[in-house]
Amino acid sequence: MYDYLKGQIVTKQLNSYRGSHIVLDVNNIGYLIHTGQCTINKINSEKEEIKIYVSLNHKEDSMTLTGFLTKEERDIFNILQSVSGIGVKLALLILDEFSIAELIDIMIREDFKELSRAKGVGAKVAQKIILELKDKLINWSNVTPVDVSDIKTENINQDTILEVQTVLISLGYNINEAKSAIQEVLNYKKECIKTEDILKYSLEYLSKLA
């Protein structure tokens, strides 16, 4: 229903009775948008004009909006909620603890212990999240064939590039966008050799184009 809302911050609240949230004025309509502490901390001040990528959560007795400063965070938030038992609150706590690149790196390495650092995530929940989400995040090539042969690399395993590209495609970017971002990172970030680093800078590059 909604992809993003653009307007002026009226208020931002941490840990209120409504939970952490902002109120965004869009053409004289105030939208109450739930979000994580990390997102609120990145908002410089009230009266700032920003774009918020939103997810509509529909329950039997309520409809709420949850928002993020990047579409990647919003998309990962939605993916997290696809795990049975993971609701809005827990998904936000996970995203407050880890960046997108860190979270995906945890999935790739199947690091249950690291994921359980997030508040409210025990060992069993961490295992469940990784088991259910890993395929969705890094095996997208089973659905959408990808080719990394035309990406110029130095001393970087092609499997690493393939992993980054499939994750970017799973987040909604097309093949050309993914390849362009990865090549840009490899051109200007010569020190990047890990999947997490390449993914992090690729996401930063793509977010600037949004």
Q: What is the N-to-C succession of helices and strands?
A: EEEHEEHHHHHHHH
Please, how many helices?
9
Q: Strand percentage, roughly?
A: 15-25%
- Structural class by sheet pairing and helices: alpha+beta
Report, as a whole number of angstroms, the end-to-end distance: 19 Å
Major beta sheet summary: 5 strands, mixed, barrel
Mean pLDDT: 82
**Number of structural units classed as domains:** 3
Helical coverage, percent range: 40-55%
- Computed over alpha carbons, the radius of gyration is 18 Å
List segments where confidence is low: pLDDT < 50 over at least 5 consecutive residues.
140-145
**Care to count the β-strands?**
5
User: Reading side by side through the largest sheet, how are the strands ordered?
Assistant: 1-2-3-5-4
Based on Cα principal axes, name the global outline.
globular
Name some characteristics of this structure.
single chain; 210 residues; alpha+beta; OB fold (Dihydrolipoamide Acetyltransferase, E2P); DNA polymerase, domain 1; 5-stranded mixed barrel; 9 helices; 18% strand; globular
Description:
With about 210 residues, the chain is of the alpha+beta class. It contains 9 helices and 5 strands. About 45% of the residues lie in helices and about 20% in strands. Strands 1-2-3-5-4 form a 5-stranded mixed beta barrel. It is globular, with a radius of gyration of 18 Å.
